[in-house]
Amino acid sequence: MKSEYTYQVGDEIRTVRVQRNGDGFVVTVGDSIYEVRAQRPEHGRLNLQVGDQRLRAYVASEGQRRYVAMAGKTWELERPKPEQKRRANAAGGPGAGSLESSMPGLVLDVLVSAGDAVERGETLVLLEAMKMELRITAPAGGTVTGVRCKAGDVVDRGQVLVEIASDDG
Amino acid sequence: MFRKILIANRGEVAVRIIRSCQELGIRTVAVYSDADANALHTMLADESVPVGPAPPSQSYLCGDCILEQALRLGCDALHPGYGFLSENADFAQSVIDAGLTWIGPDPAAMRTMGSKTSARAAMLAAGVPVVPGYQASQDDADLLGAAAELGFPLLVKATAGGGGKGMRIVHRDADLPAALASARREARSAFADDRIYLEKLIASPRHIEFQVFGDRHGNAVHLFERECSIQRRHQKIIEETPSPLLGADLRRRMGEAAVAAVRAVGYVNAGTLEFLVDPASGDFHFLEMNTRLQVEHPITEQVTGVDLVKLQIRVAAGQPLPFRQEDMGQRRHAIECRIYAEDPANDFLPSIGKVLRAVEPVGPGVRVDAGITTGDEITIHYDPMIAKLIALGENREDAVRKMDWALQHYVILGVTTNIPFLRAVITSDAFRQGDVTTDFVDRHFADWQPSTKAPPDMALVAAALAELLEGEAQGAGAGPTGEPQGDDPLSPWRQATGFRLGER
Fold first, then answer.
1. CB within 8 Å of chain B, chain A residues 52-71
2. pLDDT computed for residue B486 by the predictor
3. All structural domains of chain B
4. 3-state DSSP helix/strand/coil % of chain B, to nearest 5
5. CB distance B359–A58 less than 8 Å?
6. Which structural domains are found in chain A, ordered by start?
7. Does the annotation mark B332 as catalytic?
8. What is the pLDDT of residue A96?
């Protein structure tokens, strides 16, 4: 049995393939192949062994987000949503997708509307949270395909605010 | 001794106080707002009662609501922690009037030290050096004359001030009239009090404070200094003791000044005197007094071996200090790092959400004072400081190494924290050399950005194996997408509300 998982890291999509091999796994990341033994002694903790190297990882997930703490550092990964992947494929570029609110807050202003061309870094939405102003900016150039909030809305973390189709493809 | 103490606070300090009460066999009552119904402090206290909606003004700052609960539940004392109502002399008085013991100083001393100008006057009278300044008149002509005598640069400060509000730095006399006017406007709108005073500006100062303690039997001691110079936007982030700056002579002189201040105002219980020290001349000046327990009190506890919260409770109960000044010393070196739920990559904006997993570092010389644990929610309503890490080492170098180890082993998943920034500061050459002034972060870390390095393959391997193994462990097995089923990290135990074991 072979399982495949994709993660968005910055602008990049990384694919990890996992295959059982006896009581261990063969894991492929890009061009690299690792033989890994893995135990799950408790919920959210993995003991990994690669050759003689041992690694303890703490993992957690929330929605599409994945967190891994390992060797003194914490990594945040994103599992692209199935529809997002499809749309990304349709648009032919990796940057297509939706912009989510990084924290709950009040929408102060929406600066774009559907059909607008936007540049990377352009401010799309102004949010207020914890008495501070937060700018939601375009991660890449593209075209706004949908606006899902309006001034005065109270939005949750992870709520989609604006949808963009990327130019690069 | 008290039978039941109400803790009028939340988060890590509430947890800290509950801990000392439990050791003393005193029952505890926690209060909580609607946003904190399942917060850690509510789970650890013997009883927990709601006091209002999420906004602090309607809950943790509502003295009447809190006092009503303390009376209803038969508490005989109240501990205010720090922040919220802790420096509110009127509230302290109403607690005392209701027949309860206020675990803190007398309201009169709180009032004297709470106003910047009356505190300055009291310290001057006690012979404690204060930052040179002028507060005798509000008249512009008098202020201009005094400014010429003090010299520039100087600070215009609000008498009722705090948090930098109503404060202006003035570099030349021509700018003073405009600065006076705007400082008054800001002070009036922030504090409904437009009185101002002048203070000489000390360039690149060190912020060093002394822990003091007085009892009701005429005893007063200091418990040495805390170096609090590492700040970001006027917020302390790293504290240590002993201070790398103080030699034995300066420490002795500052300690004596601190004790003189305690005696001068008849101060009882725990307090902190903040001083500015001019690194060039070695002169020190009284800045202000905090009439409460301090966030950074654990480093003092680590090097003196005194549990300051237990001592607060004992002194409030009328007991004398169990030691004399000459019995006290500093042993080894302690450092505290404040863990904030904020995003260093996003201009240090607060970061909120559910703590999916928290694993605290444990080991020799490492202490964690946390207000959150796995499953807790960090909301927009309160201070983003969620925990403190304290390292005690044989010496400064050893404490720095321990702190770096502890920061690496503090796992917090689900919310972004400032841990990478703290590690960068702790391991920097400038910090290791003890070059700590209040502008340290601006001088060395103004343009700091967290690493944007892609995760190593092993992190992706762990993530993928987690999808598979976590999914299998859920029984239902992983779906075709490898999506784990029912990945709620919370056991039903933590979600249960109004459920308590061991009720006596």
1. 55, 57-62, 66-71
2. 38
3. 4-103 (3.40.50.20), 132-200 (3.30.1490.20), 206-445 (3.30.470.20), 463-492 (no CATH)
4. 35, 25, 40
5. yes
6. 2-78 (3.30.700.30), 93-166 (2.40.50.100)
7. no
8. 44
